[in-house]
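Thread: 4-O-methyl-beta-D-glucopyranuronic acid complex, take 2
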Amino acid sequence: MSYESAWLNADIPCSVAGLKGVESILLKVDHAAAGKEERIIETAVHETARAVKELFGTAAEEKRITATDEITSGRNASDGRIDILLELVGEPALDTDGAYRISYNSAASRAEVKAGTARGLLYGSFRLTFLFKMVSSLNELSEESVPASPLRMLNHWDNMDGSIERGYSGKSFFFRDDSIIIDDRTEAYVRMIASVGINSCVINNVNVRTAATRLITADYRSDLKKLAGIFEKYGVDLYLSLNFAAPIEIGGLNTCDPLDGQVRSWWKEVLDDLFSDVPQLKGFLIKADSEGRPGPFTYGRDHAQGANMLADIIAPYGGIIIWRCFVYNCKQDWRDTKTDRARAQYDNFKPLDGKFSDNVILQIKNGPMDFQPREPVSPLFGGLKDTHQMIEFQIAQEYTGQQKHVCFLIPEFKEILGFKTYIRDKEGRPIKDDTVCDIVTGRTFKNKNCGMAAVTNTGDDANWTGHDLAAANLYGFGRLCFNPALTAEDIEKEWITLTFGDDKEVFLTVSYILSTSWPTYEKYSSPLGVGWMVNPGNHYGPNVDGYEFSEWGTYHRSDSRGMGVERGKDGTGYIGQYNEPNSSLYEKLETCPDELLLFMHHVPYTYRLHSGKTVIQYIYDSHYEGAEEAHRMRDSWIGLKGRIKENVYERVLERLNIQADSADEWRDTICSYYREKSGIPDEKGRI
Ligand code: GCW
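Output below.
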């Protein structure tokens, strides 16, 4: 399979006025830590050289220097050529792994990238290339950035047969027929994610099946080593998903009880062997006691006992265990209105706060359910005070249109990260104003074992993400974990320029499509926080009762009078999991935000929203508006014919057509259902 270069698009020219080329790339490294990071530094130089060649057509001379006044001979500052200096420095401001500073030294006609670590030098080099394509003058080559989130991670749900769970961009480029694939696409991918600062990647699905269980055994050792070597060049740490039941499935034991001595010895032997062969391996991601996966509960143990057993074994290697909190009862009786899936993560993990080893990080989905187009923030953020935490987003668009629909998710992630948890310190005092972002970037608890993960949206499609516009989510996620202070508009602008160049018309149209796409999707699918009206199994397209009478704990409780799940004091009590004042805000109908109303409460169809509109009329109107908007998005794209590469134009148009049709189907299915169920006609007489 061939691939395209996404935002590393070599066709986008240099936008800096008067800049014609680069004479020399100077590398200055006299920093003590350089030795072991040499490979990443080499990559930084190599990437800079590659960018110079792509941007200016001619190569630059590469030189190691010992002092910055060693200016190359023969360079004439007035000929439109500059030098680039990459320098590893020992400055406290650049100490954080990955931090860099870019500046332009006009006296020496030199663009400078300074960093305290090899990763910083690499990220700075990529950013310098990006700035060459985004700014108009040399003086704008100015940026200092310290990565906010220590772990910036992608989770692949790739299976070893080559399929991808919830994958919408072709097949896996890591696995095929139970083997690991290593080809030029491997490096192209790692390069792409490193260019936006991703530093960690889990290559296989959390639902670990047969062959993948053996990834930790000698069978896959040499391929894993090769893969780790490629990851290492780009400063990306390799992680695997682990099968908690491996001692039974491949170890021949009859238990995987984490407190059983034999189980422990089995793991120790296998993992010691693995880490000594593949020292670059950084750790494991684990889904346990969840949706049929085995876990500690089977043996009457808790999740801290399960996670710590593995964590203690890999601690000597600096290894990390990332333990998912997606644990809930997926065999619920829909008639039971007290059990609430939304409560489950908090109920399961809050009591274990403080019990996990230092190298365990809990990975918590952004919302309490499962990546619906709109969910409240998981109350577990703000509940845990003494446990390392990471947030899990999903850029694979499982519930947001499966990369057939455009849904730019960065505005949603911004809202979630900005949510104030009103967390209290260990003594019970409120830590004023702390947000989810503060918690997962380690500011609240001053820790480094934390960060952000996203279930990734890539596959072996030529453009990596199926829908070309879905690449903005991959790019945006990387940028956001590096610098959560960026706005969604900043990110959108960067991505559009790097991908399509600086055509104003293209910019305006793509920006309009991206920025309206999430609200649009929400309007025609499941507004007011209700979620789940999708076809069971594949999760695509409308099916109001698809999950209503199932065992998955996903209900909207619509009857002839009203709809929504009552999660307040008189309902499941979920709202009580939030700290004050959030808990009162959600509890009271007068203050509960409209967009989450049906998630939090069961209300009559005639209930009036803050806007004064009734719930039922809002449902009708929003579906009509959303569908209209989907058509408008498609029509505006048509205006770009001839301004965008033909194949990209056609690929996107094909999907926008599918989206417009699907939005109509959502509108008609949902509106007819509620017209019938409520008996209340549409004020505008459309249904
Ligand atoms: O959203 C659900 C998905 C499953 C997934 C699970 C999870 C990997 O439908 O496909 O399994 O979440 O997050 O573990």
